[in-house]
């Protein structure tokens, strides 16, 4: 691990020398100087071939974004929640065909038709808890999400008939991890995923329990000025978006997806396959990953958007190529992060 970070440091020094002529630097021009920033990396054939830091991680204290700055991943966290469930499934502790009324006591009647795998690929039809939480409410937790749903008598649609992205689903999955592992969600991730891979700076953040090292704080643009808005009423929910990480740690995770260190390769490949509805129609989502095509190749990715963070982890496995963009700002809109990653990708390929 020490050798890896030393190599990364040398690489960053060398790339800084050519920063002025770097076309990717131009793409992130508005992230530089006193602006909230970004950490951008390209991984090719098992190596970080580009990694640059832009702007400020902490404007008030003039702390710039650095190679090891930790950003709130938001929904990029979902791939780790899905992995935790699949680890427990591999051990026989969880069955993806369980109905939710088997898992959670006093769950509404519609839980009899919703299975665990419906949660994983966003076909459950369960209402999104964020619709119940005002922006100025006290922070809610995954357990609070379960209580909201227990008191809600209906669903958007019958499980398996439609695809609708659901943060609620991943909060429930985190609670399942706790119930069947007999550990807190944050501890399970640490002991079963982060520590085995050497991801020493990655964690599911729980105030007064752990601390985020080298933390990048979030900012929102208001009336032409950047205002620190790092947390919201939903920021304490872990399963759908509560993980912090940085580029060096996500590089280790990226490589583990090729090597089968945490899950068997066959299981990992299943997470990258489009799910199907009851009538056989495919959906553009696997297990914790969006799926699309990019110039004839399968691209798997996940964006992350929360109060003041916009991120994307974008992979083309057949090319052994990945793009990581972590930012601590509330613009652009989440769906535009795919365009931004592909803009970086095109620039890299062209040069």
Automatic annotation (TrEMBL):
Highest taxon of the lineage: Bacteria
Database matches in InterPro entries: AmpC-like, Beta-lactam-related, Beta-lactam/transpept-like
SUPFAM superfamilies in the record: beta-lactamase/transpeptidase-like
Enzyme class: hydrolase
EC number: 3.-.-.-
Keyword annotations of the record: Hydrolase
Residue ranges of domain Beta-lactamase-related in the record: 27-336
Name the UniProt record assigns to this protein: Serine hydrolase domain-containing protein
């Amino acid at each position: 691990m020490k050798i890896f970070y030393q190599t990364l440091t040398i690489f960053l020094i060398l790339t800084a020398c050519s920063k002025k002529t770097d076309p990717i630097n131009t793409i992130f021009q508005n992230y530089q100087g006193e602006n909230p920033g970004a950490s951008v990396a390209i991984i090719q054939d098992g190596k970080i071939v580009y990694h640059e830091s832009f702007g400020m991680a902490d404007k008030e204290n003039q702390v710039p974004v650095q190679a090891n700055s930790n950003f709130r991943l938001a929904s990029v966290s979902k791939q780790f929640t899905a992995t935790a469930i699949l680890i427990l499934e591999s051990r026989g502790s969880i069955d993806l065909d369980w109905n939710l009324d088997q898992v959670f006591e006093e769950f509404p009647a519609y839980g009899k038709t919703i299975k665990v795998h419906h949660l994983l690929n966003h076909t459950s039809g369960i209402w999104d808890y964020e619709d119940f939480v005002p922006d100025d409410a006290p922070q809610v937790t995954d357990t609070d999400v379960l209580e909201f749903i227990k008191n809600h008598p209906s669903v958007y649609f019958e499980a398996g008939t439609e695809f609708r992205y659901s943060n609620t689903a991943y909060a429930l999955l985190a609670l399942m991890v706790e119930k069947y592992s007999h550990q807190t969600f944050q501890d399970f991730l640490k002991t079963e995923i982060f520590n085995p891979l050497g991801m020493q700076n990655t964690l599911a953040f729980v105030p007064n329990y752990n601390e985020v090292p080298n933390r990048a704080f979030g900012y929102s643009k208001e009336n032409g000025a950047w205002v620190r808005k790092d947390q919201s009423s939903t920021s304490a929910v872990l399963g759908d978006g509560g993980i912090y990480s940085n580029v060096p740690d996500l590089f280790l995770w990226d490589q583990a997806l090729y090597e089968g260190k945490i899950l068997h390769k066959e299981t990992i490949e299943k997470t990258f396959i489009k799910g199907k509805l009851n009538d056989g129609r495919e959906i553009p989502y696997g297990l914790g990953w969006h799926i699309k095509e990019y110039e004839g190749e399968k691209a798997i990715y996940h964006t992350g958007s929360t109060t003041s963070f916009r991120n994307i982890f974008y992979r083309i496995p057949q090319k052994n190529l990945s793009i990581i963009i972590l930012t601590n700002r509330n613009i652009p809109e989440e769906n535009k992060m795919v365009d931004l990653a592909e803009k970086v990708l095109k620039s890299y390929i062209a040069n």
